[in-house]
UniProtKB/TrEMBL annotation:
Record's protein name: 10899_t:CDS:1
Domain of life assignment: Eukaryota
GO molecular function: double-stranded DNA binding
Organism expressing this protein natively: Funneliformis geosporum
Highest classification ranks of the organism: Eukaryota, Fungi, Fungi incertae sedis, Mucoromycota, Glomeromycotina
One CC-aspect GO term: nucleus
Biological process terms in GO annotation: regulation of transcription by RNA polymerase II
């Protein structure tokens, strides 16, 4: 039986190194998209010198700071901005209906 491989199955296989954002397989440490269709391209990236160095750097930062930010794609950033704008508009509408001044 042939198992269908998707970006999500690849991310699950390598959950310590990759995440899925907006249809892209992104390396957690390098903030770099990796082609997920072939397992060899993922293994080549993981075994690369740059990935190993950035992984060590990431882990050291996490030990000292406890929190390291992840880069987002443009689509997810726009989605977050739109949801924030919607929340603000709903709040303004609720204040207007309740006759609460905004100043």
């Amino acid at each position: 039986m042939v198992r269908k491989v998707t970006i999500y199955t690849r991310a699950a296989e390598y959950s310590n190194d990759f995440r899925v954002d907006d249809g892209l397989l992104l390396c957690i440490y390098c903030n770099h998209s990796v082609k997920w269709e072939k397992k060899s391209s993922i293994k080549d990236h993981i075994q690369g010198v740059t990935h190993c160095a950035k992984k060590r750097e990431y882990e050291n930062k996490q030990k000292t700071n406890g929190n390291v930010l992840q880069q987002r794609t443009i689509a997810s950033t726009i989605l977050n901005a739109n949801s924030k704008n919607e929340l603000i508009e709903d709040l303004i509408h609720a204040f207007a209906v309740a006759d609460i001044p905004l100043e």
